[in-house]
């Protein structure tokens, strides 16, 4: 009886050790596999020689090195931009440059880079914005710890043309399709999505607000997006920026409702007036109060 108990105890001990080792090995393999996942960073450019060098550097200097930077130039008329892009392509094999035969807008340029992308994850950064060095690493760690997360974004700092910090935009920790439909709360420069669950998504070929339309299309599949409250990027407000005059661009949101949800022109403008605008201005007030407190 004593001998049988000893044998049973040893078997149980060996079982625990075996399973512990097996689980440890599986976790290690999973971690190594995830660390090697390629991230495709999408960047459009157009006459961007003034700031694009800073934007490229912040991506190439990420603490997560397994990335490719795909820059599609939207038919720049500035030769300095093209020279700068070619110089980076020669210096770092992760940089890939594509040239559009004519100017069609940032959405077309981004879509070209998405088509060429080889990575499982797709992230976005414009040619005048910047990332924190650990941006990709922190987002990937978060997404890999939350299997249900296929679209991730974060808070970001707002700076002026010289790079001086002027404010912050706080990201919600969780965002549903209905909430995103009310108003775009995802900063494109912070967004990253996983192509594994649903494949690649492309931006609709509308001139403006195509990033919001992209996120809505992703959310129609995954239903929920997850935000990190920690700021991980710098949004640069420049005189040349397309989205700098937000109020003048509001009317273009109606096209998003038509394109993504198939609304009529009348329904789109009704939704814009009675849902989007109140939500948008409430968000502006909340961000204004948050920046005053800081």
Defining traits:
11 helices; alpha/beta; 294 residues; single chain; 10 strands
Blueprint (SSEs and pairs):
Elements: H1 2-35, E1 39-45, H2 52-60, E2 67-73, H3 79-91, E3 95-99, H4 106-116, E4 121-124, E5 130-131, H5 135-145, E6 151-159, E7 165-169, E8 174-176, H6 177-182, E9 192-194, H7 195-198, H8 210-222, E10 224-236, H9 246-249, H10 253-261, H11 265-293
Structure overview:
It is a single chain. This protein is of the alpha/beta class and 294 residues long. Helix content is 49%, strand content 20%. The protein contains 11 helices and 10 strands. It has helices at residues 2-35, 52-60, 79-91, 106-116, 135-145, 177-182, 195-198, 210-222, 246-249, 253-261, 265-293, and strands at residues 39-45, 67-73, 95-99, 121-124, 130-131, 151-159, 165-169, 174-176, 192-194, 224-236. Strands 1, 2, 3, 4, 5, 6, 7, 8, 9 and 10 form a 10-stranded mixed sheet that branches. The longest helix is centred in the first third of the chain and has 34 residues, at 2-35.
């Amino acid at each position: 009886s004593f001998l049988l108990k000893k044998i049973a105890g040893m078997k149980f001990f060996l079982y625990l050790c075996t399973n512990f080792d097996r689980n440890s090995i599986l976790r290690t393999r999973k971690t190594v596999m995830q660390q090697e996942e390629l991230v495709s960073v999408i960047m459009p450019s157009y006459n961007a020689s003034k700031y694009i060098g800073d934007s490229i550097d912040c991506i190439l200097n990420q603490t997560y090195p397994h990335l490719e930077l795909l820059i599609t130039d939207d038919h720049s008329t500035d030769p300095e931009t093209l020279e700068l892009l070619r110089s980076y392509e020669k210096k770092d094999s992760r940089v890939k440059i594509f040239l559009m035969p004519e100017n069609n807008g940032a959405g077309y340029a981004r879509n070209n880079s998405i088509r060429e992308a080889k990575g499982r994850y797709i992230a976005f950064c414009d040619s005048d914005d910047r990332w924190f060095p650990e941006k990709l690493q922190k987002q990937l760690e978060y997404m890999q710890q939350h299997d249900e997360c296929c679209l991730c974004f974060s808070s970001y700092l707002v700076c002026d043309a010289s790079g001086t910090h002027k404010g912050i935009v706080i990201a919600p920790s969780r965002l549903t399709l209905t909430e995103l439909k009310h108003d775009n709360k995802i900063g494109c420069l912070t967004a990253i999505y996983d192509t594994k669950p649903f494949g690649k998504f492309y931006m609709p070929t509308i001139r403006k607000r195509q990033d919001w339309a992209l996120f809505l299309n992703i959310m129609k599949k995954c239903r929920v997006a997850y935000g990190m409250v920690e700021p991980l990027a710098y949004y640069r407000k420049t005189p040349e920026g397309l989205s700098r005059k937000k109020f003048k661009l509001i009317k273009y949101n109606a096209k998003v409702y038509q394109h993504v949800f198939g609304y009529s022109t009348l329904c789109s403008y009704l939704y814009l007036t009675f849902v989007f605008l109140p939500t948008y201005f409430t968000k502006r007030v909340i961000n204004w109060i948050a920046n005053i407190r800081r």
